[in-house]
Structure formats: structure tokens, C-alpha cells
Design brief:
44% helix
Length: 452
């Protein structure tokens, strides 16, 4: 129950309210981390605290040692810290006050204030995100004054792929209900298609491949004909309309026409969550995630706080180009067994052609679009600026339901290869020495093979 987290948040809330020194806020650079950082930023701002904030890609030992030397007397970690709790205990906790608001698998609880759903019996991989945990911390600080921050909690959870079949579950479900009841998001059932609010309707239809729409998927002309046959105008005031531009009656007409055409519409129907700024929550979380992947996470904070449409469009275009470049690498090298190959798992070795910020996204897309045939997991590899390797892995959902935990497996392998890493059951990552690449691949492949 959400009340369990609120009760657990009381020591952190009291510490923040009474603390009179300078605070360092540290968040992670994905959509969940940026959302959590925004919540904490506003909470501290409203408390009138003196603070600085930074958003990091990951927190390894050298980063913890750096923070141990910072001038701030209290460090608030959001969406990061639980997986580094042993290092925080060793290097920081004895000299500074520490609060961690995270949802990743914790190493230890530590002597510092450590908010994590795992300590309360909840799975942080699917029940609640770091943004959700940090929202509940803000609520414990000032329930009425911070209630509007709830929308960022849902953006974070969505960006962390915590919706299942279009629905929030666990603690996220309770947070979503609260957000709907208080009018911070709206919800109605509709066609859950890519680009619902940002792409022309025909593009959303042609990009739909699961289920495959015969004559429409990958066929813009067929998609246009489907819309016209439903009696729906493609344009309004000269501009192409998106799915979100249709009124409810028009969307019902389109659904009815798709059913008449024999398409599996039921699998495309989900609850659609719309933010007050007019964006569907899945697409808005993608924009926030893009800011981190492009190395500009503070732009994500700015977008969340200002809804700057020009900035949103700019970051979306840059992100789209980068994703396209990275996916072209996979497609162009599918016959190069030094770069793209299968063992028990699928391996995408991006070398220095796919940046470390995008290897995780490429692994996620390649896992979901069937690039590899029926494999239990994908591992992406990219070279980093500090001459190490970034590892990003994704697991098949059924394997996770059967008990696979990538985060645990990768954490154990890192101990053998002098690396650092971990994560969730369905998605995990690491940073390792370059000369340990083959050893890491062999160990991960063997560990997955044992569970297939």
C-alpha cells in the first residue's frame, strides 16, 4: 500500500524539513531519474532549501569518492544509490548525511536514510519507480503543497516501462488513481498506437506491426485508405491530424472500420493517460528520456517544469535521428558475425559506432521488434569514453515471469570481471574493462542457458 511508503518516508521528510545546510541532489539520467530529480528539485525549492543538483549517467566508485569530497553536508540521491549503497556506506555515510530515494535492488540498507520498496516487500522493478518513491517523499514533506508533482511520478514509471499491457500495476496503480481523481491526468480507453499525439494518423497506423495489419502495416497508402474508408478527414486547417486529434466519435468509427476489416483491434485498446499539457504520457516520457540519452538531462527537467514546446520538438528531432542511425547499424551489420550474432542470447556489439547512451535503447527495440528469433535475452555492447565497455541487457518477459533476474546475474558476473553493474529483473547493465568482453558474454550466455 502507498501508506507503507509514506510511513517509511517520514524520517527522510523530517530530516529535509529540519536541515539548515546546503544540499546536493543527485539523480540518474533516464526518464525515471529525470522525473525523480524534478520532483525533488521542486520539493526542495518549495522548502526554501539551499541546494545544487546534478544528473549522472551512472554512479561508480570514483563518482562516490568525488561526492564524498563535495562541500554539501547532505546528499539526496534519487533513482540511484541503492545499487551503490555499500560504496555510499564506505565513503560518504560517516562524514555526511545521506538520503536515498530509489527503487533498484539494494545492496545493503546502510546506516543512512534509505527509502526503497524492496525493504517493504514490493518489487521495485514493476510496482513503483524512483519518481513514484520521490513523489511519496514529497507528499510526506507537504501533502497539499506537493500534490501536483504526482504527474511526474507517472512519467517516470512510464519511462521505466512499468506499465503492463497499457496499465499501471502495484503501487503505481494507486498513484495513477490519485492522479486521475485529482485531475492531474485524464484517462479513457482508446487505440494505443505509437505517435498518438505526435505523428500523423496514417503514420501511427502504418507503424503498427503487433498485431500486423495486412495492407496497412508498413504501407502508408493502405493506412490512408483505411482512414478515408472510415469517413475521417486526414487534415484539419491544412495540417495532418494525429490520432489524439480525433474526437471520441471519430475514434469509434475508426475502430469499427478496423473490426470490419478483420483486424485484431482488441489487442490495441488500452487506457490512454493524457497529461494536462496535451501529451499522451508514453510519448512525453520518451521526450524526457531523449534528453538524458542526448547528454542534456537538465533539458528534461526544464521541459517537465515549463512544457516548452520548441524545446520538446528540438529534442524529439535530435533523438529520432540518433535512434535511426543506431538501428541502421544493426540492420546493416546483421550478416557481420563479429558485430551481430546469436548464441543462447542475441548480441549486438556496437563497438564505437553506437554510443553508450543509445545501446540500451537499441537493445530494448531489438528485443521487442523480433530482430532476433525467439531468444531469451539480448546483450548490447558499446565502447565508452573512459576506454571501458557499457553493457545493456534486456530479457524476454516470459523468462522474467519464470524467475529470471538479469540484475542479479549481471551483478554476480561483474564480481568476476572487475566490473560494476546490476539493475532490474527485466533490464540491467554494467561497465566492464574492454579485455573482459568475451568473458562477460560467455558468462551471461551460460547463465541464461541454464535457465532456458
Amino acid at each position: 500500500m502507498v501508506q507503507d511508503v509514506l510511513d517509511a518516508a517520514k524520517p527522510a521528510a523530517e530530516k529535509l524539513k529540519e536541515f539548515d545546510g546546503k544540499i546536493r541532489l543527485v539523480g540518474q539520467y533516464d526518464a525515471d531519474g529525470i522525473s525523480a530529480t524534478t520532483i525533488a528539485h521542486e520539493m526542495l525549492e518549495r522548502l526554501g532549501k539551499d541546494f545544487e543538483y546534478e544528473i549522472v549517467k551512472q554512479l561508480y566508485e570514483e563518482g562516490v569518492e568525488r561526492l564524498a569530497e563535495c562541500e554539501e553536508e547532505l546528499i539526496l540521491f534519487v533513482d540511484i544509490g541503492s545499487g551503490q549503497s555499500e560504496l555510499i556506506e564506505e565513503h560518504i555515510a560517516g562524514d555526511k548525511q545521506v538520503i536515498v530515494s530509489d527503487h533498484h535492488e539494494p545492496q545493503i540498507e546502510g546506516s543512512f536514510i534509505h527509502m526503497n520498496p524492496h525493504f517493504l516487500g514490493y518489487d521495485g522493478g514493476e510496482a513503483i519507480s524512483a519518481a513514484g518513491m520521490t513523489y511519496l517523499l514529497a507528499k510526506a514533506v507537504d501533502e497539499e503543497g506537493n500534490k501536483d508533482l504526482i504527474r511526474f511520478a507517472l512519467v517516470g514509471a512510464t519511462g521505466d516501462v512499468q506499465k503492463q499491457d497499457g496499465e499501471f500495476i502495484g503501487l503505481n496503480e494507486q498513484i495513477a488513481e490519485e492522479a486521475v481523481e485529482n485531475g492531474f491526468v485524464s484517462r479513457r480507453q482508446g487505440l494505443d498506437l505509437y505517435g498518438r499525439t505526435t505523428k500523423p494518423l496514417q503514420k501511427s497506423l502504418m507503424y503498427t506491426t503487433d498485431p500486423y495489419l495486412e495492407g496497412v502495416s508498413n504501407n502508408e497508402g493502405g493506412a490512408i485508405q483505411l482512414v478515408k474508408s472510415a469517413g475521417i478527414d486526414l487534415r484539419e486547417d491544412g495540417d495532418f491530424r494525429s490520432l489524439a486529434d480525433l474526437d471520441e466519435d471519430e475514434e469509434r468509427k475508426l475502430i469499427h472500420r478496423m473490426i470490419e476489416s478483420g483486424y485484431d483491434v482488441q489487442s490495441l485498446l488500452n487506457d490512454i493517460y493524457m497529461l494536462e499539457n496535451g501529451y499522451e504520457i508514453d510519448e512525453f516520457s520518451t521526450v524526457i528520456n531523449a534528453c538524458g540519452r542526448l547528454g542534456e538531462p537538465k533539458k528534461g527537467v526544464e521541459i517537465l517544469l515549463t512544457n516548452d514546446e520548441t524545446l520538446i520538438n528540438k529534442m524529439s528531432r535530435k533523438y529520432g535521428r540518433k535512434i535511426s542511425e543506431s538501428l541502421r547499424y544493426v540492420e546493416n551489420n546483421k550478416d557481420d558475425e563479429d558485430r551481430i550474432y546469436e548464441k543462447t542470447i542475441g548480441i549486438i556489439d556496437g563497438k564505437d559506432d553506437i554510443s553508450e547512451e543509445f545501446i540500451g535503447t537499441v537493445a530494448t527495440i531489438s528485443m521487442s521488434n523480433g530482430f532476433f528469433d525467439e531468444i531469451p535475452a539480448i546483450m548490447g555492447v558499446a565502447e565508452t569514453e573512459d576506454e571501458k565497455l557499457k553493457i545493456s541487457s534486456r530479457a524476454d518477459k516470459k523468462m522474467v515471469e519464470d524467475g529470471l533476474n538479469l540484475g542479479e546475474i549481471i551483478g554476480e558476473i561483474c564480481e568476476d570481471v572487475d566490473g560494476e553493474g546490476g539493475g532490474h529483473n527485466v533490464a540491467a547493465g554494467a561497465k566492464i574493462p574492454q579485455d573482459q568482453k568475451q568473458e562477460f558474454i560467455d558468462q551471461l550466455d551460460a547463465a541464461i542457458a541454464e535457465r532456458v
